[in-house]
Description:
By secondary structure, chain A is an all-alpha fold.
Amino acid sequence: MSKRSSWALPYFIFLVLFVVMPLVLIVVYSFQDASGHFTFSNITKFFMDKDSLSTFALSIEVAIENTALCILIGYPAAYILADKSLNRSAVTVVLFIMPMWVNALMRTLATAELFNMAGITLGKGTLLFGMCYDYLPFMIYPIYNVLNKMDKSYAEAAEDLGAKPLEVFTKVTLPLSMPGVASGILMVFMPTVSTFAISEFLTNNKIKLFGTIIQENINNSMWNYGAALSLIMLIIIAITTVLQGKDNSEAAAGGAI
Amino acid sequence: MSAKKIFAKAYIWILLIVLYSPIVFIAVCSFTEAKSLGNWTGFSLNLYKSLFTGGMQNSNALLSAVYNTLLIALIASIVATILGTIAAIGIFNLKGRKKQAIQFLNNIPMINPDIITGVSLFLLFVFLHISQGYLTVILAHITFCTPYVVLNVLPKLSQMNPNVYEAALDLGATPFQALRKVMIPALRPGMISGFILSFTMSLDDFAVTFFTRGTIGLDTLSTFIYTDARKGGLTPELRPLMTIIFLIILAVLLFINIRSSKNTQESK
Lengths: 257, 268
């Protein structure tokens, strides 16, 4: 039995090379100037640069709003899908996930075009709508997964003990489904901060999000500043992950399709 | 039907209509010749014709982008499935700190947004002086796909009776035979769902490919669409292409789900 633990070794080496090393390189490049000398200037540049800071603030704001919107719209949908008395077909669940198989950029361009045709000016409103449209399945699916696996006898017990339907929901179902909401947040919040193409298309380049300025710097060979911006994002990811505490990735990955 | 049920059904259907409207919009617009998306110049099948006969300006570029997308997704998900399954067997047999450490590392690519994965791998390839192209894109895709295979195979290992493998060895099977005839069949459902997840994520990836494809002009469908849209005006043939892709996915998914729901009903 003990010998088979060595089977993890190739993957461990792979992870060190393609996950750990690249992240270390982000840190290294962040503290170097173009000629490879140690410097803090990339970091200070970010905090001195009004444009970067306001882009950053806007990205966080849009991400919070988008995540909230996805929970508000996605939770009831997940709840209905998981409730056997309201929805009995697994096909409906698949219908919610299926748009993800169609190229996201193409869908986003079509959404933007629909806005144009309806005479709606592209801007923050369309950005939020389009983002929510792109990320909603990522919120619905983990919540649905948790609700679906939840032991129904808890809710029934609460009912038997005299709880009103609303109380059953707020005191039993909702707290038990929080791991699903948490992994939904994880799958919506950071990706929203970091998208670049989607925000460009949905606002006709009027609104830049943080991902766009990272991409612009890397593509214009300003790797060090690009790395420093990525580092700032990495720190936020670390904070949100720690705040989340427990590892919820299993709720998200469990029982694919 | 109770009012609650009507309300629930309406909510689901309204959401679905909104979710599908852009896709339906693309499909409708694939039946007209107009250059830009959203114009209607009468019904025509010409876009389908020119997609298949290569009559458009950059047909080679579009078709090779489709080919690259499929090839990269296929190679990356096959490698990820093999690597991830072997890794899962190893991780399952690890204990304590070592197990926690590798599971922590395994979670990183899933938590990281695409752009961080893309930029960090870009820096790695620059640092190691590896010229970017097919190989780097495939390596990058393996990096973000394998964790999902590991997570899908691990539960199957814990559901498996460990004695069965030992019994096979006691009865004279070589470790390889025991792996092939006992382990793999038990792990197969996890491997398949890991493979499907990997394949679809690779197909849909944009950001990681964008940063690791280098400057040799390698395009997948996503980067093709991005470049095309930034130049202004999408290649009209993308519309029939997307419609066909969507119909294929719809058919495959409905087939799988109807079959599997029949299976579960029968087993009950």
